[in-house]
Amino acid sequence: MEETSAMTPKKTRFRLVDRDIPSDFSDFLKPLGYVDCAPSRMVKKVFFDTFDWRMFNSDKSISVGPGVRGPEVCINDLDGNETAAAFPGGLPTGLVSDFPNGHIRTMMAAIIDVRRLLPRLEVASRRTPIAIRNKEGKVVLRFIVEKCSVRDPGRPRTLSLGRYLTVEPIRGYAKMEAKARDMLNAEFALQPVACPLPMEGFHVVGVIPGDYSAKLRLSLDPMLTSVAAVRQIHLTLLDAMIRNEEGTVNNTDPEYLHDFRVAVRRTRSALGQLDKGVLPAAVIAKAKKDFRWIGQQTNHMRDLDVYLIDYPHLQSALPAAYKPYLQPFQDHLITLGRKESKRVAAMIRGKRYKRIRDDWQAYLTSGFKNDITSDIADMPVKDLADRRIWKAYRQVMKQGGIIDDNSPAESLHDLRITCKKLRYLLEFFQSLYPPRSLKALVKSLKTLQNVLGEFQDSQLQSEAILNFGRDLAAAGSAPVETQMAMGMVAESILARQGIARAMFSECFDTFSRREVEASFVKLFKNRE
Amino acid sequence: MRVLSIYNIKGGVGKTATAVNLAYLAAAEGRRTLIWDLDPQGASSFYFRVKPKVKGGGKKIVRGKSDLDDLIKGTDFDNLDILPADFSYRDLDLSFADEKQSRLKKLIAPLKRDYDVVIFDCPPSISELSEQIFRASDLLLVPVLPTTLSLRTLEQIQQFLKKERLRNVKMWTFFSMVDRRKKMHREIPDEFDANAKQHFSSCIPYSSVIEKMGIERRPVVDFAPKSKAANAFQMLWDQVSSSLD
Fold first, then answer.
1. Based on the structure, what is the number of domains in chain A?
2. What pLDDT is attached to residue A20?
3. Interface touch B73/A170, C-beta < 8 Å
4. A340 near A251, Cβ under 8 Å?
5. CA-based nearest distance B36→chain A, Å
């Protein structure tokens, strides 16, 4: 990421009310120099961001608007003062492939990854640029008087944003800016607007930037009853699931399905670990069955997404001569992906899914209070969290402690599931514990999870790739070199599995070290 | 940050016109661009309507006593700034003579925060300053007139780079001020293009519209974007930018 420069002069935007700027504003500016007032013109800019606001979270904005020679993409810092990059063209797909190779694509890949940029705000303005020129005819200061309106691209209604005067200093001509400021202050007493223009626009159209994140952002009161906390957790997860339905149905980008599945998995994990003694057994059993079904319906599509995302990496493992032969594999994945996407879309639009979702929502919102069945339900959530996390941690230590070099793969797979349960618990209850301590524990756990994930995923992936190879051979749709290339890919994945297996002991030892144990004891055991 | 130097030992070959127009095109493409007018004549500064005056002069810059950030001026174009010329630059050779050979490279290193492209508009000479420029540049772009004498100077530059073992800088040439009415101007480029390595095929025509830059005081590509000269500069920039990346 480029550092921002301290030297670039900052633009200042002032909100205008009718009386602020007289019709003879150009005459007013005459003491500054020759006033060059260009004709007014309409300028339309569309601001983009991903569904989970990755640009906003990186303190950046990206817009498409008119440039010197046709449309131009502009990446700015959020307050619009620093231009990180700009290039002619638009964002036809919204994906990282829209960006020119080199530092711009690298920067954007680090921000948006596989997500798609979506139009989030349209700003239309009638602009009148005014330039102040010195004796040489050089522009030494710029003003822009504009009247702006905004629209949420998903809605037809255009709303007025206001009138603004923007002062744009030119580097190296600071005195001119100071003189202009003094004049404006003396005459109009204008107050600068601190909020960046797109943020004001979002406010007017009723959109809250950053209102969705794949990360759980639960804020639980430690004294809340367990039953109320469980309800809050499930409602948050259900909301995440529902918000990702449309993007999953349209297959806008693979992260919608991913987030949808994470919400389903977290729900299943909560049902298994939290709800015993809090919700009626029959409700838990039914919900477990229903959400398992939803998860199963999306497994294959997610697998295909992962292969497609990893494809460049898989291809890079091949010798140059074999790389082109892997293309039929990618084509096969794309074809299967399209079919699966249609199937998942039909599932989400289908009656069974809707019934499961609506019944669960109805239960969480209206049927919940009547179902309290035990003392655990009334226990403060902090106590429940301590108990459940401590139990899951002990289980991780027990399962991991007996794994040696001769242990079967299943024991590592089981440990992976237990680690995942522990991770979800830490995420559900993160607001109840000191953030720094919890962050360190999650970091240690994550390293162990990564190794276990690599071990299991590489086994499944290598088997799946060989199966895809058999499909292609049976269909006679790829040359023998493709089979060979896929064999090499499967082999390179298996090599990764070997490395992960070798790394397990060291990673588990790191997770078992005294500092980590002491933290778990301090945070969770003594409150049992 | 990529550093492009427009250089030739000879004067009057179109260095400044090239520097000014390529700087404009780089900026119009969204690259944050700085043009440093190193020629004490200050023609680039004139074209951008900036006073050819630098506080403290060239000596202070070379000694690191002036902050380049404070000397840079914004031009009338987005993403394009200029470090103006100063008459004291005529003594830059003497100032650099007391410094290490990579002094200029070190001086511009902090600019990478602010700029994607730095373009040096170089004075015509082969001197201590030229050597500093060569060491600081990624690409040396040499405008060549389609004349025997101009081609001879090209050989002199190549020999100099070889002698001084300046391998980090890539030297590329292109024909400038080509008057297709002249037989020699038609024959030499055709013959040269066929055999030359590291040579851009775009030819900048000898054109009155380029001379008009002195009246308009802005790049041809801005005031006459559809002219033959503007198209030629655009084609040259397309080739240069892909070579820079």
1. 2
2. 63
3. yes
4. no
5. 14
* Gap between the Cα atoms of A377 and A383, Å rounded: 11
Instruction: Name the token pair of B163.
Output: 């002698």
Whose tokens are 């005294």? That residue is: A514
Query: How far is residue A527 CA from its own chain's centroid?
Result: 35
User: How far B71 CA sits from the closest chain A CA (Å)?
Assistant: 7
C-alpha distances (whole Å) from A483 to each of A136, A335, A467, A490, A502 are: 71, 18, 11, 10, 29
SS3 (DSSP) at A157: coil
Contact B114 A5 (CB under 8 A): yes
Q: Model's pTM, two decimal places?
A: 0.82
What is the C-alpha to C-alpha distance for residues A463 and A477, in angstroms, rounded to an integer?
20
CB-nearest to B74 from A74, A88, A172 is: A172
CA of A151, closest CA in chain B: separation in Å?
A: 27
Would you say residue A45 lies in a domain?
yes
Are A46 and A148 members of one domain? yes
Q: Average of pLDDT values for B15-44?
A: 93
Mean pLDDT of B77-88: 92
Say if residue A275 is in the same domain as residue A178.
Answer: no
Residue of B nearest to A131 (CA): B76
Average the pLDDT over A267-274 and give the result: 90
Strand partners, A83: A76
Provide the token pair at A484: 């060979």
A313-327 as b/e, with b when 16 or more CB fall inside 10 Å?
ebbebbeeebeebbe
Q: Which residues of B touch A139 (CB under 8 A)?
A: 76
| Chain A residues with CB within 8 Å of chain B CB | 2-5, 7-9, 67-69, 72-74, 83, 85-88, 101-103, 131, 136-139, 170-173
Q: What is the token pair recorded at B89?
A: 């630059």
Q: What is the pLDDT of residue A45?
A: 95
CB contact under 8 A, A137 and B81: no
Its ipTM equals: 0.85
For A61, list phi and psi in degrees, rounded to 5. Answer: -130, 150
Same domain for A16 and A156, yes or no, is yes
The distance of B149 to chain A (nearest Cα, Å) reads 37
Which CATH number do you get for residue B158?
3.40.50.300
| B116: chain A residues, CB-CB within 8 Å | 103
pLDDT digits (tens, 9 = 90+) for A284-323: 999 999 999 999 999 999 999 999 999 998 899 899 888 9
Classify residue A478: in a domain, yes or no. Answer: yes
- What distance in Å separates the CA atoms of residue B108 and residue A2, rounded to the nearest whole number? 16
Name every chain A residue with its beta carbon within 8 A of the beta carbon of B48. Answer: 138
Distance (Å) from the alpha carbon of A170 to chain B's nearest alpha carbon? 5
Mean pLDDT along residues A170-189: 89
Residues of chain B with C-beta less than 8 angstroms from the C-beta of A102:
245
Confidence tier at A3 by pLDDT (50, 70, 90)? very low
Measured between alpha carbons, how far is B12 from A176 in angstroms, rounded to an integer? 36
Q: Are residues A441 and A508 in the same domain?
A: yes
